[in-house]
Structure formats: structure tokens, C-alpha cells
Amino acid sequence: MRMRKKPHGFERLLALSDLLYPFEEIIAEDRTAKNSVRLEDPGTVFASEHPLKLEVGCGKGDFICTLSEKEPCFNYIALEKVPDVAVVAVEKYASRRGLGRLGSNGGWVASDGTLYPMGTKYPIELSKRGNTRFAVAEASEFLSGMPDESLAGIIANFSDPWTRKSSYSKRRLTSPEFVLDYRRVLLPGALFSFKTDDEKLFDYTLETLEGSGFSIEYSTRDLHSEKDSGDNIITEYERNFMNKGMTIKKLIARPVK
Ligand SMILES: C[S@@+](CC[C@H](N)C(=O)[O-])C[C@H]1O[C@@H](n2cnc3c(N)ncnc32)[C@H](O)[C@@H]1O
What we know:
It contains 9 helices and 10 strands.
């Protein structure tokens, strides 16, 4: 699904930049997500020192908004490379946290009614920012800045299958290069969780993980028919695929350290 360009998407991200991880360098460099990563001590980014999980390719953010409310004992980074998609996720998160709403003129209307006109920043106290920050960045660049054994979990939902050409396989978020990075940044015992509708991508991912030092802890080719699927958080893409009658595959893997 192609997103139409968001009107003033960049300024809208700026308004909520206190929820980004971190934002300044995106503006300072080339107004794209490229090279935007400057990893900070999570202790200065989050109000509470919880273990940190990463969602790679968060899309419009339904999943992370729900997960971060359901499991508040973790901090989360939701990573999305397309700024116009990320802005939808950040605004959704801010609204669900009671931090206001997008105004009709593209400004941000805080919960007390104060309007922050488009292009200005809405300052959000650290204690009100909740447990999630959004990173607008390419996953490989972001991961390369991540310290070893720093994450308590990684989640990739419905990542693009890139099946049209074999040379595209490097772009898959479960290519051997990505999987080795996940292995490096995951804490011992931490889990990698993956969902897809795509049979071939699922097979490829199982094979790549097993060939890259992960053990498969759980795997199903029809998640919604499983007894314990009630805990499953449905993502935007998952809902679309379910509506088309497609079965959802899921796996959970653990690095063997
Ligand atoms: C098919 S969508 C799925 C979105 C969401 N996870 C869901 O399940 O509804 C995949 C998302 O991953 C993002 N993405 C793909 N490759 C990425 C990369 N290398 N780095 C960061 N984000 C990426 C895309 O921009 C897109 O928003």
C-alpha cells in the first residue's frame, strides 16, 4: 500500500519531537530519515528504566500503541523509515496518551486546548511521554548504532516480502544481515517475534533464523486458529490480510548464545 504524501508531515513530526528517538539530526541533516540515528542513553530518553524492546517497521503504529499500554513494564522504540508513515504512528500514540490532537490547520492542539501552530514544537514533560519513542530511520543504520546485548525483545510484523527479484532479498527485514544484527543486540534469552501472511517469507525467515544461531521457540501457520491467540495484537496489515481471508503465520525465536 502506497501512502500519499502527508500534508506538512515533517512539521507535524517536529511538533511531537519529544516523542522521537531522537529528532534533531533529521532536521540538521537532509530532511530525510537518512543518517538520523544518534543513540542516546535510554536512561535520558525514558522516565523509567525498564528493559527496552524494538519494533522494526511499525507502520501506522496500531500495534505499538496497544502493546505499550498492555505491557507497561517495558520501554519501546518503534522504528519506521518513512516519515509520512511514522507521523501517523506518533500522532496516534500522542492522542491515545491524552496528549492532544492534530488541529485542522496542521498545528497540534494540546489536551488543555493550547494550539501549537504548525512548525512549532509542543514541549511534553518527560513523565507524560509514556514508554514509547519513535525512530524515523532505516533499520540497518539504526541497528548499527545499537550496543551489543541492549534489547529485551525485537518485533517485526508484516515486513515487506521483497519477493519480486532475488536481488531484493537483502532488503528483507529477516535477511541474514538483519538477523545477525538482531542476534548481536538481543540480550541473552530475549526473543525475536515475527508475523506475516506470506508463506515464502515465513519459510525464508525460519530458515535464516535457524542458520544464524536462533532456536525457534514457537511457530504457527494459522495464528488465529490457535487457542491462545486471544492475546494477539492485530496490526493494520494483519487486519487487511484477515479481511482477505489469508492465514497469519507467526514465529518466536531466541538467539542461542
Ligand atoms: C508492510 S508494512 C507493515 C506495517 C505494520 N508493522 C503492520 O503490521 O501493519 C512494513 C513497514 O515497514 C517499514 N520498513 C520496511 N523496511 C524498513 C527498514 N529497512 N527500516 C525501517 N522501516 C522499514 C515500511 O516503511 C512499512 O511502513
